[in-house]
Structure formats: C-alpha cells, structure tokens
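Today's session is about reading a structure prediction critically. Students often jump straight to the picture, but the first step is always the sequence itself: look for stretches that repeat, for charged clusters, for runs of hydrophobic residues. Only then move on to the predicted structure, which in these notes is written as discrete structure tokens rather than atom positions. Here is the chain we will use throughout the hour.
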Amino acid sequence: MVLALAKEIVMRKDEFKNEVVETIYFGGGTPSILEVADIRLLIDTVYQNYNVSGNPEITVEANPDDLSEVRIIELSQSKVNRLSIGIQSFFEEDLKLMNRAHNSAEAKKCLEIVTQYFDNISIDLIYGIPGMSNEKWLQNIETALSFNMPHISSYALTVEPKTALSKFIQKGIIPPPDDEVAQEHFHLLIDKLEENGFIHYELSNFGKEDYFSKNNSSYWLGKKYLGIGPSAHSYDGVSRSWNVSNNALYLKAILENQLPSETETLTKTDRYNEYVMTGLRTIWGISLERIETEFGKSYLEYLNQQAEKYIEDHLLFIDENVLRTTKNGKFLADGIASDLFLLNLE
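Below is the predicted structure for this chain, in token form.
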C-alpha cells in the first residue's frame, strides 16, 4: 500500500506542476500506525516530484495510544512538524462511551511527552456528550489549556449508525445527544478559548496567532489539493475527483498504471454553494464583491435576499462588504448556509 501511495504521488505530479505545495497531511484513519520510515518515504517522494515551499506544514494525525515516546521522538526527527491528536476527552467515562482505545491517563501522558518534542500541536475535543455537565466540559477545556496547546479542534458528538454508541441509545442505556446542551457547550468553548488568546478562525477550529492549520484553511479558502490513496478526494478549482474506496481495486489499478478515480466538473452554482458553505464557517466570511465578480449580479441579489432575515435576527451581519455570522449565528452556520444555497442547478 505504501509503495502504491508513493507511485500515485509520482503519477499525478503533472496536476500540480504549476503549484507550490504548502502543506502535506497524513490523515483519514490513523496514519500514525505506519512506520516512520514509510512516512519519510512518502514525504521524500513529494519533495522529489513537486515544488515544495521552504516551510511547509507537515501534519500526522494520531491517537494517544499510537504515540509512544519512541514514536514521538522518531517523528520529531523526520520532516513532520505538526501533530493532530485525537484526545476527544480527558474523562474515562466519556472515552469508554465513545469506544476509544486510549484512557485518560494515556491522553495526559501523551501530551506531557509530545510537548517536549513538538511546538505545533492540535488536539480534538468532543462536546455535547450525553451526561456531560457544563462544569465537566469546562474542566476538559482547562486540562487542554494546561498543556499550552496552540490549536484546538472541537466537534459536537455525532452518533454514527451501527456503532456501539448508537446501540446504547436505541436500547435506552444512555440518552441521545441534546442540541441545546451542545450549543451551550459550544458557546462556553468560544468564550473560554478567546479569553486565552485563541482565534476562532473556523466553526470547529481555534488557533493561537500563527498556528492556524494550513491544511484545513486550504479547503475553506478554495485552494487546490491532491488526495492520495483509497477514498481520497482532490480538487483543482473547477472539478472534484475521488479515488475508489476498495483497497484491492486501488492497488490493482495503480499496479496497472491507472488512476482509480472518478471526476465531476462543478457547475457555477456548485461553486457558489461551496463558497457560501465554506466562507460562512470562517472568520474570512463571504466576500460580496467576489460573489458579484465571480458569479454575477443575479447571484449577489439572491444571496442578499436570502440573508436578509438572518441579518434581522442578528445571526448574520455585513462588515466591509463581507457577510459573516454573529456569535449566535456561528453554531447555526451550516443550517444558515444551506438556506443561502441556490438550488436551480445549471
């Protein structure tokens, strides 16, 4: 699989011949189970075939149970300069409920070690967990802050079908997540992190100055990206492609020098909807000037008309010709965005 990934990187270099690589991201599952030698091989393959910036962000996603001290040291001696760690919670009962492989002690021990070797670290925290009080949620945030994390990604608990959590809820063993509780946790999170110098630069992401995720920001700012491996998605500004999800089919195609992917060309309406969705989630908002220039006056008129009621309800506001969410509108950003979408697709 690693050799197939390296081969796909080489096969697709012409797609990026006019681009500068600013970020390399190992994600989608738990890439930290790879040997560090494999990660090095893939990074070196990118460097050999692409124009890489002088100071790229190179991130590896990991879970605390994968990050032994030996593994952390090995990663710190490679070109990897950022870790994104799936902590989720510092409470034992929450981790058991979410069926996580690590425990609370491992989460804290991992951060104690990792902060000695890495400066650029992000952790994930989950809110809206059934039975989690505001006090407990604030304790989770305080614990994260005690490790001087420069970046925190935080998401509301979602219940996926066919999981242990889903079965517990169906049987009435635990209550389902409550949207009102999640919204309260979200606002507590914003207040606490902003008090501590974090910038809420995207709906689920908080970073100190100079610690915004370049990888995540690239998606929201509509930059081109290449996704390598089974199920990976790519975007070139006008079309989106995705690789086959089946590992065996992926390996067979790469072995036969074929790219195992499908492509769709985005219509102008698709691109408008995507910009509305991503723009509304970020501090950069939706540029009304860009809407008019890129999509035309009719799109701008439609957007202004749809946004009017949200502006009246103090969920959206316009500042310097940019449409943004208010504090109360942030939690509802995805729902508001869907109402700003244009549905008569071209």
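Discussion point for the tutorial: The chain has a mean pLDDT of 94.
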